[in-house]
Amino acid sequence: MSAALNAMAGDVLLLLRLALTDEPLGEREKTVLGRVASGALALSEDEIAELVAALSALATEAEVMQARANLRQTSHERRLILAETLFDLAARDAELGPRADRLTARVCDVLGLGADEVAHLSG
Length: 123
Prior knowledge:
Elements: H1 3-20, H2 27-40, H3 45-56, H4 61-72, H5 76-91, H6 100-111, H7 115-118
Helix pairs in contact: 1-2, 1-4, 1-5, 1-6, 2-3, 5-6
């Protein structure tokens, strides 16, 4: 996988991690991240383990807030691309699909986007 694709996959998984919970990751959240990384992003087992470990390391409130701030500092266009990519992945996931409304609200909160900005993206 190219460095650009790997960076995008990492950012999408970071966004998913932040959308799932502001708390330290539990086993359920780790399973969701692993499933999305494996099935939708087609990452290798080693890449998945590395990314899930890195996302699990975001355990304190300060680390979570810094990760949110970093995503919000990216361009508006990139934030829309991240949101759209995550919504597409979630729509294909049996567990995330039925929770699309909550996921959309959380993604908007994390990325600092308005619901009107993503309405056409989230289905």
